[in-house]
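G., the chain you wanted modeled:
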Amino acid sequence: MSLFGSMRTGVSGMNAQANRLSTVAENIANSSTVGYKRASTEFSSMILPSSNGSYNSGGVQTQVRYSISDQGATTFTTSASDLAISGGGFFIVEGANGQEYLTRAGAFVQDDQGNLVNSAGFTLMGYEYEAGVDPTVVVNGFDGLTKVNLASEGLTATGSTAGSMGANLPSGAANGDVFTTSLIVYDSQGNTRILDFNYEKLADNQWELEIIDRTSSTSLGTATLDFDANGVLTTSPASLTLNGGAISPIAGTGAVLNDIVVDFTKTTQLGTAFTPDGGKIDGNAPSKISGYQIDTDGIVYIKYANGELEPRYRIALADVQSPDKLIPESGNVYSQGVDSGVIITGFAGSGSFGTILSGALESSNVDIADELTSMIESQRNYTANSKVFQTGSELLDVLVNLKR
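Predicted structure as tokens:
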């Protein structure tokens, strides 16, 4: 056995324990870092060739592993822009260099431009929201993503483009009987217009619906409503596009009324009184932005002072086959590694992706008690390896002094 070999083995052991102490120190330092994932040092033996008459001691080598797939505890906050993921997936964020990264650190706040950024300065990315349409995602890339921006735009108004009106029409009504209900809609400047829905019975199981602008008495469209023997609407399509251009704008405003698609699918004909359901319409009158909300599907809504919610963005999530093989970067973010697998993008609540919790944060998955235990073990093992080195050095001194 070589004395130098035993000393090198002792040095190898000390270096390994020093690496372990380094990960312990990093874990303790980041025990309060939102979304931080614990680092651990894994040991493996390093064997050197030996002859029959002499053993050549090897050593130990280390590899750092990050427990990225282990979810930390969820803590709740009072900020709607604090986000946590319950389940799989990562937020997609953009760095100052324009490159996208993955992270579980969801402590987002608005910067001076209204973009949502986390404590490390990375900007949250998502897709612009389109009603009734899921954004097209790129499986292995980030094309189509945009920064989630919640900048206040002062007073805003949105013209109506779609709505619905349902009602029960009394089957016992006489031919020629007319029943009326109304719906308020908004023009391009948020001015309100009242539309009257007039239902006139034409014959058994048949009615005519005419929609009229009350101010100008202008007819915007008509539809024939047919019902079967059970009072179920059979007209198809069960919708009517109102000609907004037929209405003169309110004097002095120059505002226009959009064409509005009205759905009347929920209309029935049963043996009871005329009962309108109140109707629904999109758009809003002039109102100031008062805040925002984010639901579990990651849809970001702008909230107006009048209580209206307008969807603006849908937060994108990403995942890989082997999260623990992602490459950690500064700022508590991760980039794709050779062994991590292809990055797959999607949305909260779909596939393997978890749900998004607003007003919550994912804590570090570091256990201080475990780290302190590892620190004590590393200290003692380091000391033991130093004794091996010290003993080899003393024996070497004996060997050198034999010549004296």
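The CA atoms of residues 235 and 363 lie 55 Å apart.

Shout if anything looks off.
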